[in-house]
Design a protein that fits this description.
five-stranded parallel sheet, four-stranded antiparallel sheet, 11 strands, alpha/beta, 229 residues
Length: 229
């Protein structure tokens, strides 16, 4: 799980980052709203921890930009503002939870765990068209037919299914699946998309991984009904 921390108090941001990494999460921290917006809009994170009062852009503006771009990443908003109107503004801007400073680290961790569970850990599969991705077995399933995915195929397919109709650039997929520090190149994405297309076809799936020239990939189903099989 990858978490973005957007907090202008560097010591606090780094403390939160260290605490989360000690519990197995992967984190990145940026220290102003403008960078926060740029990073968040990549859509590669599983959770955003977002301060309100920051230079360049405040947390409300960042959250609105994220939601306006149809990025559905859960947002945990941190702020010293505890008034009702402030909480309402935070939630209206797109935050999923509003935690006031100072906070107990146990409460922060509970919020993080709850939001990540809500995002997808409580379900056993993702579905699109007539096809399901079993998150436990790493199988693609369509009706009575299924095929097992490799670890990398699974990560690419899960990202595509989580994003659904939203177009993902090759750079976004590389960063999400291979990581910022990887030596992988865009051709790696093309190769794994090719593998996935063959496996989708092998089970009779109506799901297609469509390439949008110079933009990236997204999923399409052959019919209008995107119910699970």
């Amino acid at each position: 799980m990858k978490i973005l921390i957007v907090e202008d108090e560097v010591l606090l941001a780094d403390t939160i980052s260290a605490m989360l990494e000690a519990r197995g999460y992967e984190t990145e921290a940026v220290y102003d709203g403008e960078d926060g917006r740029e990073y968040a809009l990549t859509g590669i994170y599983d959770l955003l921890i977002l301060d309100v009062m920051m230079p360049k852009l405040d947390g409300y503006q960042v959250a609105r930009a994220v939601r306006a771009s149809r990025v559905s990443t859960p947002i945990l908003m941190l702020t010293a503002k505890s008034g009702l109107e402030d909480r309402v503004e935070g939630l209206d801007s797109g935050a999923d939870y509003y935690l006031t400073k100072p906070f107990d680290t146990r409460e922060l961790l509970a919020c993080v765990n709850a939001l990540l569970r809500r995002q997808g850990n409580q379900v056993n599969e993702l579905t699109y068209g007539n096809t399901a991705l079993d998150l436990g077995s790493c199988n693609l399933v369509c009706g009575e037919r299924s095929v097992r995915l490799s670890a990398r195929e699974f990560d690419v397919m899960r990202y595509l299914m989580q994003s659904r109709d939203r177009v993902l650039s090759k750079e976004q997929i590389l960063t999400k699946v291979w990581g910022y520090d990887s030596n992988a190149v865009e051709n790696h994405v093309e190769v794994y998309v090719g593998f996935l297309r063959k496996k989708l076809a092998s089970i009779g799936s109506n799901v297609k991984i469509e390439a949008i020239r110079r933009l990236g990939y997204h999923l399409e189903a052959a019919d209008e009904d995107k119910a699970s099989c």
